[in-house]
Amino acid sequence: MGDLGQIVPMKYNPRDDKSIKAVMAKANVVLNLIGRDFETRNYSFEDVNHAMSQHLAVIAKEHGGIIRFIQISCLGASASSPSKMLRTKAASEESVLQIFPEATVMRPATIIGTEDRILNRWAQFAKKWGFLPLFGGGSTKIQPVYVVDVAAAIVASLKDDGRSMGKIYELGGPEIFTVHELAELMYDVIREWPRYVNVPFPIAKAIAFPREFLLNKVPFPMPSPLIFNLDLINALTKDAVVSENALTFSDLGIQPHKLKGYPVEFLTCYRKGGPSFGSTISEKTHRYDI
Ligand SMILES: NC(=O)c1ccc[n+]([C@@H]2O[C@H](COP(=O)([O-])OP(=O)(O)OC[C@H]3O[C@@H](n4cnc5c(N)ncnc54)[C@H](OP(=O)(O)O)[C@@H]3O)[C@@H](O)[C@H]2O)c1
């Protein structure tokens, strides 16, 4: 990620202004990547996704030397979203732009990459239980994006002489998938026979509900939700694709990558027999074409 000395990790506590000021002291750019897609008993969605962003924007503004503030939000952030996380992301965009009008907001779609929280979780679940639950039949449309393209968009916006200041960008990949189609891609790469269980939304919500209900009622931390995350299930009741008139990758001079191929290659570690065992149907077809 950087040569020795180029990246200097600094500790801070989001509830301690002094530590945030110390981190920002010698900076001129702030990228706010703080976010969480589940609540804990210490931090609500409001705390992590909204209040902290607002707080960072206030401190960055007071600093005087911060020339760029990039707020990482989420595709689908809206005050009317069925997901609490997306509602708090929308609130954070509004607050950040109010406090720091020169800020740039990036709304990435579901991010795909080595440590992503969708394909890895699906693959782990499918390997462990032999099937993948498809909420609402997996018909929700999503527009997953390669993590490298999101990073490139952030860098491009920092190098555009301020043209992206005060603007909101929606970062979706070049293809729209249904959740089911994306799961098929995952199964193809891990070389497992696709097996699904259709879980209607009301049942998925009922399975996920106890964690949220007990979160602040029991004297111990609840486990992090993996697949059955109530808020993500709520989010999946609505398609999440780039809106028609939004600013996108093309406005930053970037052509996002298709997912098939290198962006999902990390999934080969889930193959029975190791990453280079056998070949997928698509790879065989490709070989015969040559
Ligand atoms: N992954 C996606 O599909 C996706 C899609 C759209 C938007 N986003 C947004 O992109 C940003 C980065 O996400 P990511 O996927 O890279 O997730 P990530 O690896 O979990 O990063 C989130 C960061 O927020 C920090 N954080 C969370 N709760 C915190 C708290 N209470 N106090 C202090 N720090 C806290 C985490 O710190 P620790 O690691 O120390 O907990 C971590 O550094 C987030 O704002 C997320 O909402 C992600």
TrEMBL record:
Pfam families: Epimerase. GO terms for molecular function: protein-containing complex binding. SUPFAM superfamilies: NAD(P)-binding Rossmann-fold domains. Residues 14-172 form the NAD-dependent epimerase/dehydratase domain. PANTHER family: NADH DEHYDROGENASE [UBIQUINONE] 1 ALPHA SUBCOMPLEX SUBUNIT 9, MITOCHONDRIAL, NADH-UBIQUINONE OXIDOREDUCTASE 39 KDA SUBUNIT-RELATED. InterPro entries: ComplexI_NDUFA9_subunit, Epimerase_deHydtase, NAD(P)-bd_dom_sf. This is NAD-dependent epimerase/dehydratase domain-containing protein. It comes from Platanthera zijinensis. GO terms for cellular component: mitochondrion.
